[in-house]
Amino acid sequence: MASSKVSTLCAVFLVFNLTRVSAKIVASFIMPHGGIALDPRHFNTTNSTAKKEAWEIHNACVKVRQQMQQLKPDLVFLSTPHGVADLKNFLFYLNPQGQGHADTDNCQCPPCCYSVSVNLDTKMSADLVKSLGLAKNVSGLSAYGPPEQSSEPFPLKWGEVIPLHFIPGLNNTKAIILSQPSRRYTDDVAMIPELL
């Protein structure tokens, strides 16, 4: 796998502990968002190496879950390359809650149903949109209601659900979700400075 493609294949977590006046990154993780990470038992392959690698991916995600459980973060920042995408801008999700489901690569829901519900930090997301704004190709997106106030959850799919699935106590942790623009498909190398 080419290293220039890594940013288009993984979700990135930054894990924060917050106080009233400061924030500190306490960990960061690069997580897969493919269904085999959820449950490799349903990986439909006869290739024993591929099956072994799928279990390694799953077990690594379980280790991240264990580390997150020890860290007890106040906030999780998820950057996803496969969320709702604008053509040009990076988008912060601005609904108070996100909710969705995903299934594994070879087992549909049901029986392989994986759902998450997460509280989104809309104030911090809106503040980031204001401070980064158009100069950095950053905007916000709300679904089914006004920003920061919609009573409907923001729709999530596998690009958010699979990495979030591995966060323990998700209902006690707030998240910020940033999606990457769809120009990542054609301008992935040119986007490296922006991603940094």
From TrEMBL:
<feature type="signal peptide">
    <location>
        <begin position="1"/>
        <end position="23"/>
    </location>
</feature>
<keyword id="KW-0732">Signal</keyword>
<protein>
    <submittedName>
        <fullName>Uncharacterized protein</fullName>
    </submittedName>
</protein>
